[in-house]
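Hi there,

I know you've been waiting on this one. I reran it after we fixed the sequence typo, so this is the corrected version. Both the input and the resulting structure follow.
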Amino acid sequence: MVKVDLSGAQSFFEGAGPDYNAAAQAHRTLSEKTGPGNDFIGWPELPETIKEGELKRLVSVAQKIRSRSKYLVVIGIGGSYLGARGAIELLKPAPGPDDTKVIFVGNGLSPDALNRAIQEIGDDDFDINVISKSGTTLEPAIAFRVFRALCKEKYGNQAKKHIIATTDAARGVLKSLADAEGWETFVVPDDVGGRFSVLSAVGLLPMAVAGIDIKKVINSAIEEFKALDVRSPENPAWQYAAARQHLYGLGKKTEILGCYEPSFRFMAEWWKQLYGESEGKNGIGIFPASVEFTADLHSMGQFIQDGTRDLMETIVRFDKFSSDFTIPFEMGDADGLNYLAGKDLGEVCTIASDAVKAAHISGGVPNIEIHVPAINEEGFASLVCFFEMACGLSAYMSGVNPFNQPGVEAYKKNMFHMLGKPGA
């Protein structure tokens, strides 16, 4: 289970500190589904629903894809791809020569990026997993049109066997297309918004194709959500939500999420969407940013240490690395590093992170640590459940609807008008 360490923020708390009464009220609102957005609170029950429903078929379809294709092209944007990409880059950062490689398209409008994906696939076999509730979001819709044509060109009448649509259960352009063409389909649940959907078929199918054990992920998620339902200040989701809201009230308006594992990068991107889209409303909200340590200590480190003091820092620390690496001894010690010879690189990384924490606290940046036991399926599932639960609590504590995104539509109206879309 995830654990939260607030010792690095304690000296910044004023008054009674984090408001756990407000956290308790937010938890009641969430669990009883009495707050705004209550039609989209199906995600805490999602792992059990998946286990009883689509899990076996997800595993079966993933095995078929792995047996016949070198690539799976995942087409989606926002919550339709960030969670899966975060999981794959964290748990399977280097696919083996016989693994199916998962590539992500439809998350932008760059012709160069689209052409690079097409060139990478070349003449190799591929499957498509298009993910969209409606099928009308511009970026993935364009990419799907392109790859659907490539699929038909390569496989002819058999193309329909290579396309899997993850979409609405009953309506929408993509659902209609899937029914008409006879594609395999999985469901985006009606009561789960995109940014909370990683533990549905949205995230699980690409993860399984990449070789992640999604049965372990789901079983761990079931246990983690049960643990996070404890109504107590000992609940780590309460601790994180209440601490960040208290610090926001003290003027800490930007939260920097950091990690000392480079493969965490897209987990941070998923976290930014989760919190940014859930909390940034009504002229308020904590701005979510991310850094990659130790690399960004040599760039962003200066600003964090000495810049504007409206920052709070949250560090994800995996308590166990997946591998060891012993620093070698060198005759002559020309580089002066023999004082580290024989030490494990993970030990050096841990000491460096402790040193950074102390420096940033002394520089006026409160530090919250989130401890995850290991980089594996169980650790990933725990982290997802923890962040989702804490996000719902934190947003309700701030007085906004965690599950809508009204501001997302503003640019679309302008864009469709400028592009000349009929009726725009």
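Quick highlight: The beta strands are 3-5, 71-75, 101-105, 126-131, 163-167, 184-187, 254-259, 287-292, 311-318, 367-372.

Best,
R. S.
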